[in-house]
Design brief:
The protein is α/β, with parallel strands linked by helices. It is built from 13 helices and 12 strands. Bound molecules: S-adenosyl-L-homocysteine. The site of S-adenosyl-L-homocysteine (SAH) has 18 residues, from strand 8 and strand 10.
Length: 363
Amino acid sequence: MEKPTETLQKKPDLRSMLPAELQAYVKSLGQPAYRAKQLFRQLQKHGAQDFAHMSDLPLAFRHYLGETARLSSPKELRRQISSSGDTAKLLLELEDGVLIEMALMLYRREKARDRATVCVSSQSGCAMDCQFCATGLCRDFRNLSAGEIVAQVQAADRLARELGYEGVTNIVYMGMGEPLANIEQVHRSIQLLNDQEGMEIGARRITVSTCGLVPQIYKMIEWDLQVSLAVSLHCADQKRREKLMPVAARYPLEELIRACRDFRDRTGRRVTCEYAMFAGLNDSPEDAHLLGRLLTGCDILVNIIPANPVPERGVQPSPAQVIENFRRIVEEEYHVASQLRERRGADIQAACGQLRRGENSKK
Ligand code: SAH
């Protein structure tokens, strides 16, 4: 007997289709071409969660699609909003029962448009096994489809509006998973989110974060989009970085930094490097000097992140004073620009590397 997931996979996933693909699909059903445009707007701009709601399409066509196609519409299982009301987290169930999380960060701004940044997952679980990250401990590992990524942004957009904001303005691929290990669906999702008939999120407002898959960074350069790149560096010593992040053995620091420079030179976009500070692992003054030396003259911005504790991994955040001292060395002695990321969502475990904690252990 067929498993339910196999039946699902046979149905075309319409929210993952680019405009030309949707056109070919609609044409194959003997429908006029303008239906593809209507359908695309329903799927991408309006975030329709059910064919029945697409009231501009004929009833019979909606019925037919409902029987033969699918929408990648995740179900909201749970929502948590931080006590400060500016950070939220949704637990979503995908069509095959896999659970993922998405976080939303809201910023009121005096002189500029308010910002609503959604942090999306690109995989459920992760195969990279970074030794400080909670995602790697999740079961049910699989890639998400482009439609499943877009649907997270749409769920965040609805939530932002409910909370009194004008919808999602920025997207970071910093939820569960390694986006560049699922690069095709991630690329496709960015094209969909960027489309004028879709949510129209500017490429410059989209950031892809990677643990350092060098060949895929070069693929990203070929996209020829103004997307931002963030690299999770976390340690400037090759041997210790390999222990913290097994991927470092495949792509050493030297190659990674070269790829960042090439990205900057060829796209004109400055790369950000993320450095989460873990007590006793990567936060000594020597570590600061190594980082300063590695990045001098690279035009890379360092994002210093107070780490989040992951008890199962035995990692703890560095004390504030240690972080301050680290940052002073990097900035003052090496003139490497840095910023300290504010800590958000700790009370709802929406912080980096913590998504889907608790839920996983309950299963
Ligand atoms: N796989 C991608 C994106 C997902 S994680 C990447 O590695 O960049 C988003 C960020 O959270 C990464 O920089 C990751 O290294 C970081 N992170 C993971 N666990 C963390 C923790 N316990 N504390 C702080 N940051 C963490």
